[in-house]
UniProtKB/TrEMBL annotation:
InterPro entries: HAD-like_sf, HAD_sf. The lineage of its organism: Bacteria, Candidatus Wildermuthiibacteriota. PANTHER family: HAD SUPERFAMILY HYDROLASE-LIKE, TYPE 3, PHOSPHOSERINE PHOSPHATASE. SUPFAM superfamilies: HAD-like. It comes from the Bacteria. This is Sucrose phosphatase-like domain-containing protein. GO terms for cellular component: cytosol. GO terms for molecular function: magnesium ion binding; phosphatase activity. It holds the Pfam family Hydrolase_3.
Length: 264
C-alpha cells in the first residue's frame, strides 16, 4: 500500500468520481440502536456530516461526481446528504443493493428463498432476544440485507452457516453488529454498476472505506483505505486522532484542484 501523498497528478487528473463510505470515514462510528422485545419500538441515534465537510463537498462537486456507498438504508443516506443532493450525487445503500442514480432507484432481483433465509435468521435471533440475551440490541430497518446491532458473538455467524449451508450469504462484523446479505452483491459490484451508468472505468472512481464490507469496492475502484490494519487498498491515508479519513482526503483532493486552477 502507498501513502495517498504518492499519487501522481496524472492519476488524480484521471479521476471522474469519488465514493465515500460513511461510518468511520466521514462520520464518527457509534450509532446507538435499541429495539424492544416485540419490535414495536425502535430508538436510533446517529451523527451528521460536519458543516466544513458539506462546504468542501460543494466545492469538490465542481470536479468530481460524488457517490456515497454504505451498509445503511437509503432513507438515511438521502437525509444525510439532502443539502448537496442533485444530479451529480449518487447513493448506494445496503452494501450495493439499492442504487439511486439520476432520480431512479434500482435493486437486484432475489429469489423468495433468499428472503426466507433472512427471515429464519431474524426469527432465531428474536428468540435469543426474548430469552433475555442482552448482547443483542435490535435490527436496523433494511430491505435487502439483515442488519443486527449486537456485541461480537460467535452465535451469529454460526446461525448464518446453519440456516445457509449452501454458503449464499455473507455475515460481516460491522463494529456495531452484523450485516447478513447475498454474496452476489457487494459495494464492489455497486461500483461496477456506477461505472457502467457513468460510462467510465471503475478505476476512474476513487473509493474509500474502513471495514470488511468495503474490501471489494476498494479493489474495484482506486481505493483509499482509512483503516489499513483492517482493510487493504492501493492507497492509505494518514490522519490524527479525532480527524476523519474521508474529510482529510477531501481536503487533499481540493488542494490538488485549487493548485491546478492556480488558486493557491
Ligand atoms: Mg465504514
Amino acid at each position: 500500500m502507498k501513502n495517498i501523498k504518492e499519487i501522481t497528478p496524472k492519476e488524480l487528473g484521471a479521476l471522474k468520481a469519488i465514493t465515500f463510505d460513511i461510518d468511520g470515514v466521514i462520520i464518527p462510528t457509534g450509532t446507538e440502536l435499541r429495539e424492544n422485545v416485540d419490535g414495536t419500538e425502535l430508538y436510533m441515534k446517529s451523527k451528521q456530516l460536519s458543516r466544513q465537510f458539506l462546504e468542501n463537498l460543494k466545492e469538490l462537486k465542481k470536479y468530481l461526481k460524488i457517490n456515497f456507498s454504505s451498509g445503511r438504508n437509503l432513507l438515511y443516506l438521502k437525509s444525510l446528504v439532502n443539502e448537496i443532493f442533485d444530479e451529480s450525487v449518487f447513493l448506494q445503500a445496503e452494501n450495493g443493493n439499492l442504487n439511486w442514480f439520476g432520480g431512479e432507484v434500482t435493486h437486484p432481483s432475489y429469489s423468495v428463498s433468499y428472503f426466507q433465509k433472512l427471515k429464519l435468521i431474524r426469527e432465531q435471533i428474536k428468540k435469543m432476544i426474548a430469552q433475555g440475551d442482552k448482547r443483542i440490541r435490535g435490527f436496523e430497518p433494511k430491505m435487502f440485507i439483515l442488519t443486527l446491532h449486537s456485541d461480537q458473538m460467535e452465535e451469529i455467524p454460526n446461525l448464518v452457516r446453519e440456516v445457509d449451508p449452501e454458503g449464499e450469504l455473507y455475515c460481516l462484523w460491522t463494529n456495531e453488529g452484523y450485516d447478513v446479505g447475498s454474496k452476489t452483491m457487494s459495494k464492489g459490484r455497486g461500483i461496477e454498476k456506477l461505472a457502467q451508468h457513468l460510462h467510465i472505468h471503475p478505476k476512474e472512481i476513487m473509493t474509500t472505506g474502513n471495514n470488511y464490507n468495503d474490501a471489494e469496492m476498494l479493489q474495484v475502484g482506486t481505493g483509499v483505505t482509512v483503516q489499513p490494519d483492517r482493510v487493504k487498498a492501493e492507497y492509505f491515508i494518514e490522519y490524527q486522532p479525532g480527524q476523519l479519513g474521508g474529510e482529510v482526503l477531501t481536503e487533499f483532493l481540493l488542494e490538488y484542484y485549487r493548485r491546478r486552477e492556480g488558486k493557491t
